[in-house]
Amino acid sequence: MTTNADLFAAAQAVIPGGVDSPVRAYGSVGGVPSFVARAKGPRVWDAEGHEFVDLICSWGPMLLGHADERVVDAVRTAAEAGLSFGAPTESETLLAEAIRKRVPLAEKVRFVSTGTEATMTAIRLARGVTGRDLIIKFAGNYHGHSDCLLSEAGSGVATGGLPASAGVPAGISALTLVLPYNNVKAVQEAFAQRGSEIAAVIVEGAAANMGVVAPRAGFLPEISRLCREHGALMIQDEVLTGFRVSPSGWWGLSTGREYLESPVGTTSGPAGLFPVGVAAQNNGVTFGEFWTPDLLTFGKVIGGGMPLAALGGRAELMNQLAPLGPVYQAGTLSGNPLSCAAGLATLRGADNNVYGKVDAVADTIAGALDAALNREGVPHFIGRAGSLFSVFFSETPVTDYAGAKAQETWRFAPMFWEFHRQGVMLPPSVFEAWFVSAAHFGDDAAMNQILDAIPAAAKAAAAAEPPQA
Ligand SMILES: *Cc1c(COP(=O)(O)O)cnc(C)c1O
Q: What is the pLDDT averaged over residues 109-138?
């Protein structure tokens, strides 16, 4: 039998660290990563034939569950018609229309292949439109790995304990101001000092790459207001939250605009629209706040597991992109027909029921984890943003990156391996969100496997020892 260890050794011989994205290497939990052989619904199987209930869900895209038949069929049909043409296809238009329907702010949409490209292009567009160079980002927010967005970037950068990446010229880092997340005053001061130089503020819809840290009430609206006042653009990065935390992402969830048209045969709600249930707790976010980001970025769920991402915004801004405008952007595989087919099938499947299901699954798991950690006396705080959640081993609520880093991170690895031993696959870092799918809902065996693992996992976190200095 091929073991995970064999596969990891072979991979390490030809791939740096054996992986194509750093967190997959299990650096912060130690040990050998599970090489996945296949997945279905809420489950994955590794190369050794072990079955796991999955709480990674490809870091977000698998909202409907793995290998959903509607999505696989759509991809198969598209594949039979040809894999890529380097010419426009109707599926791009259909997906852009589906996105605009859910987030009307995205009057026009440009497809790219990764979230990194989406945010990189949004920054270039903001600089091109404003004629300014300075960017504001927030510590612990991750926007992909382009040069100007890697400072204090959360996700794998946080897991590796890096302030940033080598290879980013100082002159480029100097154009990015990194401010503490959830700190309105810091943003006000930055604008007061350098407002006329700032091209854009980029911020996650809800921060979910340093663990899950929802924006405080007023934080995003104030960013929007300051941008408007100073002629800068607000880029709301919904690569992770988009179409995962509500039909219209974090923007829809927190503005109370998370509407989908009623499915055929449903009559409830005004004018054929009805609201989706709001997840129980969102860290004190006030719903019904209104603000208008200028540009939004999407990824993860919109590709349904295939490489696809997008940026969207007002038509007058988006029309500044080539070929209409002077801001260049292109991609050989951009808007790939298989990716668009997977994305369309995923969004078509992601009805109000699906969002209700992932909220309920998240409530169940987060609630059980909270209770078990309480029973064991483990200091902790469950960060929550819609169906996204993560545990911080912290006495106090975590509202920013400093708080996330100050937690007892060493409690995570023992808890991770206890879950693993009991057949539950967690994201292998304390700085990552836990992801659930609609396929977890109603699968009693899968849910019980998670719930049964929680008491011993909480005990493992309680018994963990801090590293010797
Ligand atoms: C995942 C992520 C990205 C980067 O997307 P890739 O497809 O991995 O390049 C950007 N922004 C946020 C908020 C993300 O979670």
A: 98
* Active-site annotation holds for 459: no
330 and 375 part of one domain: no
Q: Write the pLDDT tens digit of every residue in 194-210.
A: 999 999 999 999 999 99
Q: Is 300 a catalytic residue?
A: yes
Nearest CA to ligand 1 atom 10: 143
**Whole-angstrom distance, CA of residue 242 vs CA of residue 239:** 6
Do residues 101 and 107 touch, judged by C-beta distance below 8 A?
Answer: no
Q: Rounded CA gap, 340 and 75, in Å?
A: 9
* 3-state secondary structure (DSSP) of residue 239: coil
Q: Ligand 1 pocket test: which of 116, 123, 148 has the largest number of ligand atoms within 8 Å of its C-beta?
A: 116
Q: Give pLDDT tens digits for 276-311.
A: 333 333 444 445 567 889 999 999 999 999 999 999
Catalytic residue of the set 142, 181, 259, 401: 142
Does the structure show a pLDDT above 70 at 23?
yes
pLDDT score at 281: 37
114 and 30 share a domain?
A: no
Please give the number of the atom of ligand 1 that sits closest to the Cα of 237.
Answer: 13
- In the reported structure, the alpha carbon of residue 119 is separated from the centroid of ligand 1 by a whole-number distance in angstroms of 8
* Closest CA relative to residue 286, chosen from 254, 309, 331, 249: 254
> Is 272 found in the same domain as 329?
yes
**CATH number, domain containing residue 37:** 3.90.1150.10
Residue 86 confidence (pLDDT): 96
Find the domain containing 228 and state its range.
Answer: 69-349
142 catalytic residue (yes or no): yes
Average pLDDT value over all residues in the chain: 91
pTM beyond cutoff 0.90: yes
Residue type, 406: A
Rounded distance from Cα 237 to ligand 1 centre (Å): 8
Say whether both 236 and 320 belong to one domain. yes
Kindly state whether residue 330 falls inside one of the protein's structural domains.
Answer: yes
Report yes or no on 10 lying in a domain.
yes
Pair (135, 173) in one structural domain: yes
Q: Do 149 and 217 touch, CB atoms closer than 8 A?
A: no
Measured from the CB, is residue 237 less than 6 Å from ligand 1? yes
